[in-house]
C-alpha cells in the first residue's frame, strides 16, 4: 500500500480478540456478494471466512437500513443501522441490540459538497463531540485511509477493486496491529451503502 501504516496502538473497540498483536498488519478481503441488499463476505488472505455481513431490504415497512456483522461461526457481533433522517449517519450496536446502552460508535459523513468524502467516527460513552477516527477517501473514491481523530496517524487502508460481469467488487484491507479489525470492517460496509 502507498502510505506506511502507523505503529501499533491498543485499541479494542468491538472486542479484544479482533486486535491482532504485531508486528504485521492484518490483511483482509471484503467481497460484495451478488444478492439483493448489501451482503459481504470477509476473508483472510488464505480464503478463510472471518466475518459475514447481511443486510435487510429497505421498504416502506422498514425504511431504515440494517446490517449485521457476524463472526465466522455465525454469531452476531455488530448491528449497524442508518438514521431515519439521513443515510449519511450510521450507528453501531453490540450483537443484535438497538438500545442506546449498547451503542459502540456512530459515523457521520462530511458535507456532500466536498470533493473527497470524509467520514467522522465517534465512539460511544465519551464526554466530548470530537471525532475519534476519520476515514478519508481519495479524489475518485477508489481507496480510503483511516486515521486516529484529526491526526496523521494512519491505522488502516482500504483499496476498492471494481467488479466485472464475471467478478465481484472487492475491498483489500490492511489494518495495523492491535487495531480492532472488526471495527474497521464495520466502517467499510457503511461507506458505500
UniProtKB/TrEMBL annotation:
Pfam families noted in UniProt: LOR (PF04525)
Annotated InterPro entries: LOR, LOR_sf, Tubby-like_C
Family: Belongs to the LOR family.
The protein, known as: Uncharacterized protein
Amino acid at each position: 500500500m502507498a502510505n506506511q501504516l502507523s505503529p501499533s496502538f491498543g485499541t479494542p473497540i468491538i472486542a479484544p480478540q479482533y486486535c491482532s498483536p504485531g508486528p504485521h498488519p492484518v490483511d483482509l478481503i471484503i467481497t460484495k456478494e451478488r444478492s439483493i441488499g448489501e451482503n459481504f463476505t470477509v476473508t483472510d488472505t488464505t480464503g478463510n471466512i472471518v466475518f459475514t455481513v447481511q443486510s435487510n431490504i429497505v421498504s416502506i415497512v422498514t425504511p431504515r437500513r440494517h446490517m449485521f456483522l457476524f463472526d465466522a461461526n455465525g454469531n452476531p457481533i455488530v448491528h449497524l443501522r442508518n438514521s431515519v433522517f439521513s443515510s449519511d449517519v450510521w450507528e453501531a450496536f453490540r450483537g443484535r441490540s438497538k438500545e442506546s446502552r449498547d451503542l459502540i460508535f456512530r459515523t457521520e459523513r462530511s458535507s456532500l459538497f466536498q470533493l473527497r468524502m470524509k467520514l467522522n467516527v465517534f465512539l460511544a460513552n465519551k464526554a466530548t463531540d470530537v471525532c475519534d477516527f476519520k476515514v478519508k477517501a481519495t479524489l475518485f473514491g477508489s481507496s480510503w485511509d483511516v486515521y486516529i481523530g484529526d491526526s496523521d496517524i494512519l491505522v488502516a487502508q482500504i483499496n476498492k477493486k471494481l467488479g466485472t460481469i464475471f467478478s465481484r467488487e472487492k475491498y483489500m484491507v490492511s489494518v495495523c496491529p492491535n487495531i480492532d479489525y472488526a471495527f474497521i470492517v464495520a466502517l467499510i460496509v457503511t461507506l458505500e451503502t
